[in-house]
Amino acid sequence: MTSRHIAVDLGASSGRVALGTLENGKLHVEVLHRFPNGGVPVRGGLYWDILGLWREVLHGLKLAARQGDIASVGVNSWAVDYGLIDPQGHLMGQVHHYRSPRLNGVMERVRAQLSGERIYDATGIQFLPFNTLYQLAAEVPGELARAQTMLMVPDLLHFWLCGQAVTERTNASSTQFLDPQTGEWATELLDALDLPGRVLPHIVEPGTVLGELSTDVAQETGLQGLQVIAPATHDTASAVAAVPARGEGWAYVSSGTWSLVGIEAPQPVITPRTLAENLTNEAGLDGTTRLLKNVMGLWIIQQCNEGWGLDYGDLYARAAGEAGGTLIDPDDARFSPPGADMPGRIQAFCRETGQTPPQTPAELTRCVLDSLALKTAQILDVLAEVSRQPITTVHVVGGGSQIGLLNQLIADASGKTVIAGPVEATLMGNLLVQARAGGHLPGDDLRGVVRASVELLTFKPGGADLSVLRQHFQSLTRTHNEAEVSA
């Protein structure tokens, strides 16, 4: 049995339209169209060019139409951002970027109205200043009153593809107003903040067939009879669905602009300890919970390289030749905003913590990679403790899985075996969920298909003794963690 499916993957810095061919138990992925993405600054705000992204998606679908019979299409993207739809089905205004300055101070204002304990007990979601809860609270008065519904970014594109205005569970769970215990919207939180719960759409599960491509899109792209299937629309959820793990005792790092460090749990873990550690409980495939923590990832290096303009492969090779030892807390708030001054922010952190600041691109890159590896090891220890699940293996998927230095550093810092790959985990998870929903995937072993389809690299601990660096990192991050909990 051979089937073809289209995955649309929208990331914070780029987007892709890919064709997946499932044949003889293996999945072949071909990226047909790549396009840049990023925030568009306008008069002090920051927005996504959502119509530009839609144009690129349509172009990718036209390219896919030349490949022969295709069964389905599904969209995944980053989380938390949304569009408001009016009663006539039109997008209201622009889609705000999660790094927009409009969110400055909003989380603190909301938490002054509702305690952190109340919000966390109801949602189990990590406190991040860009969560959808705070974005709704930042809306201009009257906008929400005019809206018919709110659609997360991938749900918005599904709506434009086939006309179904629903939200898929994995992305809905990132909003910080979904109750992971009941699976329903936690509307009491919105009521307490005078935010209208009526705009929240019906929730569907990953793998839901939403309908056929609308007539106008079919005519525009040349794709006839194509099913629109909601995958796990949160890009991390799709990536975790394609983690090539076996059995138990494993964790994952979805490594890219963000670094998502977590485990797959059978149910949410919401305790005073997970609140204190600011862990998040997001929905995964087939009723699982992704217990994880968001860490500032390769974003820091990406922003540095905006000014350097260097080849990444060469940059990482040069960083491997550096001694390292200078560290930052990747989650310090100063590293969140975009800007070409990122190297200066790293150096300022180092000066403030009594360290000699790195100077060259290689030194700065090594500083960030060392810090990301140590942060990962720190979170893995906490995850094992709160879940009571021993962790022996760490699967690194996504773009960061190609950075051999980072993989080895994670193995050395954590003392665990690291398995790197696949790079295209998000696309593979998206495609396999579609294939299963359409009846094209015999059995239910998505991860077995991934293992059969890609080559994986293994990194064993022992490359370097990082125990002293771990102690150094603990002291650097302690102040930040205490401030995070008390905020």
Description:
The protein has 487 residues and is of the alpha+beta class. It folds into 2 domains: 2-233, 2-Layer Sandwich (Nucleotidyltransferase, domain 5); 245-421 and 456-487, 2-Layer Sandwich (Nucleotidyltransferase, domain 5). Helices cover 39% and strands 22% of the residues. The protein is built from 19 helices and 21 strands. It has helices spanning 50-65, 106-113, 116-123, 132-137, 143-146, 153-162, 169-172, 187-192, 215-221, 235-241, 272-276, 299-308, 312-320, 342-352, 361-387, 404-414, 425-437, 446-453, 467-486; strands at 2-10, 14-23, 26-36, 39-42, 45-48, 72-77, 82-85, 91-92, 95-96, 149-152, 167-168, 203-204, 208-212, 227-230, 250-255, 258-265, 280-283, 289-296, 393-397, 417-420, 457-459. Strands 17-18-16-15-19-20-21 form a 7-stranded mixed sheet, sandwiched between helices. A 6-stranded mixed sheet has the order 3-2-1-6-14-13, with helices on both faces. Strands 4-5-9 form a 3-stranded antiparallel sheet, with no helix packed on it. A hairpin with a 2-residue loop joins strand 4 and strand 5. The longest helix is centred in the last third of the chain and has 27 residues, at 361-387. The protein starts with a strand and ends with a helix. It is an enzyme of class 2 (transferase). It holds the Pfam family FGGY_C. Its EC number is 2.7.1.5. It comes from Deinococcus humi. Residues 251-437 form the Carbohydrate kinase FGGY C-terminal domain.
